Amino acid sequence: MKNIFKLLFLSFLIVSYTACNLDLVNPNAATEEQVLKTKDGLFGLAVGIENLYATSALGSAINTVAVTTREAAAVTTYSSLEGLEDGGAELSGDNERVSRTFSRTHRVKGMTEDMIANLEDVELSEDTKAGLFGLANLYRAMSLGILAQDWEKVAILNSRDGNAVFSPRMDAYNEAISILKASISRVKSSGISDEFASVFMSQEELLNKLNAYLARYELFAGNYQDAIDAANSVDKTKAYFFNYNSENKNPVYVMFIENLVELAPRDNFGLPAELNVDPNDGRLAFYFSSVDTTSLVGLPIDQLVCPFFIADNAPIPFYNPSEMDLIIAEAYARMDNFTDAETALNNVRNKKAADDALGYGLAAGFDDTYSANGDKTALLNEIYKNRRMETYLSGTALEDSRRFNRPDPPAGIDYTTERNRNFYPYPASERARNANTPEDPQI
To answer: 223-255: string of b/e by CB count within 10 Å (b at 16+)?
Structure first.
């Protein structure tokens, strides 16, 4: 059944989404009727949203941010990759790595907008509509999240005439929060049908995913108690994954391991010496095999051996359940509740490989109890360091680096900085089409 929906999605994608920007071409009458006005069409579009996000938008967001935040270093001489690693004022809107992240994410977001716009006009049971509503809003929120993490201003809604309006990125987070809350409420009220669950996911899984991303974006928006409440609503014993195969390959594997390797992990998760990782931390061996070599610009690098990325069909976590503890820890720390912050942080530090909810043994494995002894700066630094390790290669590192007030990047080239940009420039292709495109930040 899911293969049939994939074929419907591909037909729609070829006709409707040929442009890699906000200028979305109207589908022809037959395709629009098929995809947007029937149950099978909407199910096919939902399958397509999931597949395109996993294979296209997610990988681009992870790999691009990894270079900017020094999680990874370039090991191949592609000019676009070199420009991304140089960063600073050298990075322009012509860089295809940045443009790719922008366009792929908007493509997924546009599909979710079409789903939501047409959902109520199709004859479906309310519990099937609730499931599709939740799925579409989940992926719309995740797409808004990528854009708000990486750009100063965001087009909250795509535009078919190519003139999308941009808003401050916090408005995008607030929109993501709003639609996630609306989805949680609707799914809880209506439940989801067996028909939806048989193709996509159970009600429990959908609610866990909605709450996990709600917790993330509440934190990013500075809503600390709401972030704690959402994180506590997630069952941290359950884990979910983006799945891949030999035809739809794991996008991190493709960049780090397959054929012509383009990226390699930086030593120490790309963290500075002041935040050096304890050599006994189990997460080092989980992610890396130590090799005595350097990148193209002389940076010490390791070999990626993490099971999330080691093969073309390796599954990437939808989110790491331990991120919920780190969200709680950070939120409490920022509210000056150091006791509860340290309790949540130590849940992560003391986790053993056998207790990893993801099922792969991702764990620091410490026995000691960390305490900052009332030093808020030290506590936040420890939380940040653990975020870099627990959520390594998840695309959140740029938001984290800014939020924790890590040193600003210089305008010029300096490979020793913790990040080389604050926000990305807008693609030149978007600027050429859309007069509303904001000015680029210098860095």
So the answer is: bbebbbbbbebbebeebbebebeeebbbbbbbb
